[in-house]
Amino acid sequence: MAAELVEAKNMVMSFRVSDLQMLLGFVGRSKSGLKHELVTRALQLVQFDCSPEVFKKIKELYETRYAKKGTEAISQAPPQPITSHRAPESLSIHPSYDHGVSGPRTSLSTPNIDYPSLYGKHVNGLSRLPPKVITKPEVRLVKLPFYDVVDELLKPTELVAQNNEKLQDSPCVFVLSPRQVDLIKNSRDLHPGTKSVQVVLRICYTDTSCPQEDQYPPNVAVKVNHNYCSVPGYYPSNKPGVEPKRPCRPINLTNLMYLSSASNRVTVTWGNYGKSYSVGLYLVRQRTSSELLQRLKTIGVKHPELCKTLVREKLRLDPDSEIATTGVRVSLICPLVKMRLTVPCRAETCAHLQCFDAVFYLQMNEKKPTWTCPVCDKPALYDQLIIDGLLSKILSECKDADEIEFLADGSWCPIKAEKERSSSPVCPILVLGSQDMMAKLPPPSSTVSSENGKPGPDVVDLTLDSSSSSSSSSDEDEEEEEEERPPQKRRCFEKGLLSAC
């Protein structure tokens, strides 16, 4: 291919203005401009759109011109003689060429050719330019933990509008191999009517900068053969003014497909509103949360000593900090379900020691995949999850506490609940009938009769003088003040116990 390109460029460099104009007019490009502009345009044509017809036209113009000139044409031949001529059919067709229809043209500002060295006396420089292969970057989809890709049936392909209508149809036809059919038929049932090995359709934005998440276009509908496939609907929104969200997941097409050698036709109906989308077809094996949990227990357990080292690193004294951290509290309750942890888990990218329960975390993401840490609200993808071996050991040893404290040396101690600490008596308990209790009781009132226990009659001493009356009045005042004061708390007698405070 490189030899044919060099040969075609050498022939173009030997053309006159009339030959260049005929070549450019043949492919529908502009024929106006100076000779060096025409040469530049023709070289671009050879470099990027050299189809068999274009090469044949260049050869025809070259042979016609030099057949008329005779020996004069031979003397004006390019410095590198043409050694052989291959048949035009041997050239590989550029992807932009399609049966004589000119594809998208490269703009004149493309800096892929050193034009000063190509034009003029530096014709030999053409042979030193390596052929450039233009490869368009492909759209990539993010890896889904619950789907293991077995085969790629259709690479992500852009949905192209065929007209100016807002609603577009994009068909796709493919055939399953006998091996793929056997895989689907012999796979186990996740639940009635759903096989674990499936053919799924994934749709995403046409963006090659990074792996793309599943994203549906507006008004999307999928038809498999002669029936429409169910597409996930919208989540209802309870908040006023908030639009409902749609879970964009792989669409299972297995139930509507021909599991034989017959061809399957999939038609995607989508709304053309400016954004570009791509679709891909995959043969996948769907996993359950219990399978992912077992895989995590196999390959994702972090050794207790490594976890203890991480604790010491977090509690290491920072010389630039004025506050020394002597310990950090970690709850043994899962923040997701408010229950005691069974499989303590967190992401390696998280900066905290607090864990959440891997069992409930995987179950929640199986129903509604968000992969967000419930502690710090940062991404916690499945490939980043680890099981804390140290906290697993603590959970088996500490049964009577819901919270622990890690110390600076990596050790830990349980923290009792506040209710347990407050339930311990602060004052001694006195038992009714004991001598201590009798000592605490007030003496019997002097106004109580020893005979029948009833208060005796009031006796007034008329011999008291005014001083005694004044003192009695002062006593009455004191009694009135005591009546105005709030009553003192009564002693509580319950079940034979008396609080000493």
Would you summarize the structure shown here?
This is RING-type E3 ubiquitin transferase. With 501 residues, the chain is α+β, with helices and mostly antiparallel strands. It is built from 14 helices and 19 strands.
Describe the structure.
It is built from 14 helices and 19 strands. α2 (about 15-25) crosses α3 (about 35-50), α2 (about 15-25) packs antiparallel against α4 and α9 (about 305-315) crosses α11. Helix content is about 30%, strand content about 20%. The protein has about 500 residues and is of the alpha+beta class. The chain has helices at about 1-15, 15-25, 35-50, 50-70, 70-75, 115-120, 180-185, 290-300, 305-315, 360-365, 390-395, 420-425, 435-440, 465-485; strands spanning about 145-160, 165-175, 190, 195, 195-205, 220-225, 225-230, 250, 265-270, 275-285, 300, 325-330, 345, 355, 385-390, 405, 410-415, 430, 495-500. The protein is elongated and about 105 Å long. The strands form six sheets. It has a four-stranded antiparallel beta sheet, covered by helices on one side. A four-stranded antiparallel beta sheet has the order 2-9-6-7, with no helix packed on it. β13 (about 345) and β14 form a beta hairpin. Mean pLDDT is about 75; it is low at about 70-75, about 80-130, about 445-455, about 465-470 and about 490-500. The protein has four domains: about 1-130, SAP domain (Transcription Termination Factor Rho, Rna-binding Domain, Chain A, Domain 1, Orthogonal Bundle), CATH 1.10.720; about 145-235 and about 245-285, Jelly Rolls (Sandwich), CATH 2.60.120.780; about 290-420, Herpes Virus-1, CATH 3.30.40; about 425-440 and about 490-500, no CATH class. It catalyses: S-ubiquitinyl-[E2 ubiquitin-conjugating enzyme]-L-cysteine + [acceptor protein]-L-lysine = [E2 ubiquitin-conjugating enzyme]-L-cysteine + N(6)-ubiquitinyl-[acceptor protein]-L-lysine. It comes from Xenopus tropicalis (Western clawed frog). GO terms for molecular function: DNA binding; ligase activity; SUMO ligase activity; transcription coregulator activity; ubiquitin protein ligase activity; zinc ion binding. Its EC number is 2.3.2.27. Keywords: DNA-binding, Isopeptide bond, Ligase, Metal-binding, Nucleus, Transcription, Transcription regulation, Transferase, Ubl conjugation, Ubl conjugation pathway, Zinc, Zinc-finger.
